[in-house]
């Protein structure tokens, strides 16, 4: 089976017309028809038929099976192409979330410089939720990821480094300034400033509010941790943030959550499953692993 034929079939599955497939791939319609016929001949089964009452192509049960496997095959082929093209590039495509980048990555930068790896880094800086997608899609090959629970994903390998505590942040003018700890249910009437869905903080906020049986009133979402902290300082709302992200210079109060859930700010080194790291990527991963002893010291 040709990969191009599988691409045509998978797109046919999505749009339901040969014309739509031909237009998308900028080919003549008979080219698509012949590709589907080649697949049917190779597999000795019917994959699709025309439903004239609906004017669309209907996929057979055999076609449903092929679509599931073909989607994985095309994804793996794309990843193989990306990995082969980058294997000898001397570049380390690295995913780094902002909080981990500002708080923890500098702790191992001396070793990275000594190993002459800093110039090799191509850094993708965004939240951990987005970086996980970038890792799976082949945009990055190595990432430091934050997650509310230890990562369970069959498509990636992870090395757990540490976990850190989430706290409630508020203005020093807010009534929470006088509270050392609080139950999340007591915050049901509070406005929240939240990091957006690229960060795990939005997921943690949802988990806590679900457990407390209320829907949080989010008045502002941002992808900037500094913006979040400044708005909270102005008493525009409160927020959920990993405790390590708060510095002495921040004019913020922190309140510990009583009866904390298992969700914490877990930090892991992640690569795709079966990814073949070259020598300088392996040296880089070894430098990152030193975070485990430094942070937990």
TrEMBL record:
Gene Ontology CC annotation, any one: cytosol
Pfam families xrefs: HTH_1, LysR_substrate
An example Gene Ontology molecular-function term: DNA-binding transcription factor activity
Coiled coil: none
Residues in HTH lysR-type domain copies: 1-60
Record key words, sorted: DNA-binding, Transcription, Transcription regulation
Family: Belongs to the LysR transcriptional regulatory family.
Protein name: LysR substrate binding domain protein
Species this protein is from: Lentilactobacillus farraginis DSM 18382 = JCM 14108
């Amino acid at each position: 089976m040709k990969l191009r034929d599988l691409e045509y079939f998978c797109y046919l599955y999505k749009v339901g017309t040969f014309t739509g497939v031909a237009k998308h791939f900028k080919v003549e319609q008979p080219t698509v028809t012949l590709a589907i016929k080649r697949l049917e001949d190779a597999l000795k089964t019917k994959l699709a038929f025309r439903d004239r009452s609906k004017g669309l192509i209907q996929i057979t049960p055999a076609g449903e099976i092929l679509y599931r496997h073909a989607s994985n095959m095309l994804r793996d082929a794309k990843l193989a192409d990306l990995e082969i093209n980058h294997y000898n590039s001397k570049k380390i495509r690295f995913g780094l979330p902002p909080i981990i980048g500002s708080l923890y990555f500098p702790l191992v930068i001396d070793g990275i410089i000594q190993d002459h790896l800093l110039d090799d880094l191509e850094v993708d800086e965004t939240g951990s939720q987005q970086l996980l997608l970038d890792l799976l899609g082949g945009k990055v090959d190595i990432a430091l990821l934050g997650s509310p629970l230890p990562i369970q994903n069959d498509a990636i390998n992870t090395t757990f480094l540490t976990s850190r505590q989430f706290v409630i942040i508020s203005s020093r003018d807010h009534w929470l300034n006088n509270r050392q700890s609080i139950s999340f249910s007591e915050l049901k009437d509070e406005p929240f400033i939240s990091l957006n869905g690229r960060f795990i903080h939005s997921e943690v906020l949802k988990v806590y509010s679900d457990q407390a049986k209320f829907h949080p009133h989010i008045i502002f979402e941002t992808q900037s941790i500094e913006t979040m902290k400044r708005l909270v300082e102005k008493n525009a709302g409160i927020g959920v943030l990993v405790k390590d992200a708060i510095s002495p210079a921040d004019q913020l109060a922190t309140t510990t959550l009583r009866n904390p859930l298992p969700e914490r700010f877990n930090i892991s080194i992640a690569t795709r499953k079966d990814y073949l790291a070259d020598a300088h990527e392996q040296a880089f991963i070894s430098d990152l692993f030193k975070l485990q002893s430094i942070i937990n010291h």
